[in-house]
Design brief:
This protein is of the alpha/beta class and about 375 residues long. Helices cover about 50% and strands about 15% of the residues. α6 links the parallel β2 and β3.
């Protein structure tokens, strides 16, 4: 809930009535005390403003004592204002406190909307989820990502997770991530990336993959530009999730066969891979932004720069290219020519996707020219 929504809740009908009663009490008290004190005590009650000041000081029990009634009528008014003021101020305090307490309870239960921007949404849950979150913060170092969890974990389990990462201020939304409502509460419109984990705390691997596929279809149909990273359990489902337009698909244990066989054929290979892909290792593979002065230069010059200046080994380059969609080159008036072009594209069984594609170029030729939108893949 944002500031505006909170203020709307605070100034709800109940509290508005209390403020109206407080205003009415102040006006009646000010007029009444001025009536009694205006003649007998003109030095202190010189006008309506002085009476209003006295009424407010009395209502809120400040008790400055700079203005005080001396007549019986004025003191009776004062007694009435003190009793009524304590009651009204207590009601205001209780009402505002209850609104903030209710907001906090709803937030802890995952029922409040969260207004993060450029954040990561992690949907689903399994035994690797906490390790993935911890790796995010290890790799991010100084610029820690904002993370929102969307799942249906039991309250005690999700509270344990939130307590563990309390300093990172992870937020939680309760709900089925295959539906729009929980994702909208997680502010998916402003999210940077959506990660779909197999929901193994609720379903078996096959059903969990089906939920991942359904969530991918739902997100990509509503937010085609959003980056979706899907983690699935069964290799046979990889093609289906890719057809649903997931930007990246990871299959559980997909590299185990390579590591096992490779370690037999080339002893020590598994240890090398562990070093390269450990978040805690001093030597790992990463991507870095290429300085503008090296754009248009050769790959050989790039490798020499990073080797000499940063003691990094350049393995290649990577770029994210946004493919052209039909809507990018067809006119907005839906002319017959546009309709013909679109129909022929579909008849040919081709599509011009709206999503971005990542292109990896490992170990290019020394003469390869560095492009404007590329980053360097380096071994730190």
């Amino acid at each position: 809930m944002g500031l505006i929504e909170t203020l709307k809740s605070i100034f709800s009908k109940a509290i508005v009535r209390i403020f109206l009663a407080l205003t009415l009490l102040t006006v009646i008290a000010a007029v009444s005390v001025l009536h009694f004190e205006g003649i007998r005590n003109p030095g202190e009650y010189r006008g309506l403003w002085d009476s209003v000041w006295w009424a407010l000081v009395t209502v809120f029990t400040v008790g400055y004592g700079d203005i005080r009634p001396i007549t019986i009528g004025g003191r009776i008014v004062g007694i009435f204002v003190m009793i009524s003021g304590v009651t009204l101020v207590s009601l205001i305090t209780a009402t505002i406190s209850s609104i903030f307490v209710a907001k906090k309870i709803r937030e802890d239960q995952g029922l409040e909307s969260i207004k993060f921007e450029d954040h990561i949404i992690i949907c689903g849950w399994n035994n690797r989820a906490e390790s993935i979150i911890e790796t995010f913060y290890t790799l991010a170092k100084q610029k820690a990502p904002k993370i929102i969890l969307v799942n249906e974990l039991p309250e005690d389990e999700i509270n344990t997770v939130l307590d563990r990462f309390r300093k990172n201020k992870i937020k939680f939304i309760r709900g089925d991530y295959t539906r729009n409502a929980p994702l909208e509460r997680a502010n998916i419109k402003a999210a940077k990336t959506i990660i779909l984990l197999p929901n193994l705390h609720q379903f078996d691997p096959l059903v969990a993959d089906e939920k991942t596929l359904l969530a991918t279809l739902n997100i990509k149909s509503t937010y085609p530009k959003k980056k979706v990273v899907a983690f699935i359990m069964t290799p046979e489902n990889e093609i289906h999730v890719k057809r649903a337009k997931a930007d990246e698909v990871f299959v559980s244990d997909q590299y185990v066969d390579f590591l096992l066989a490779g370690d037999i054929i080339e002893p020590g290979l598994s240890n090398v891979v562990s070093k390269l892909f450990s978040a805690k290792s001093d030597h790992r593979i990463s991507t870095v932004t290429i300085p503008s002065r090296l754009k248009g230069k050769s790959f050989l010059e790039l490798t020499q720069f990073y080797k000499n200046q940063h003691r990094m080994v350049v393995l290649g380059v990577v770029s994210e290219v946004e493919s052209v969609g039909v809507s990018d080159f067809l006119s907005s008036d839906s002319s017959h020519l546009d309709a013909f072009i679109e129909r022929k594209i579909k008849e040919a069984g081709k599509t011009l996707g709206e999503e971005s594609k990542v292109i990896v170029n490992l170990n290019p030729d020394d003469e390869y020219i560095i492009q404007e939108n590329e980053k360097a893949i380096v071994l730190l």
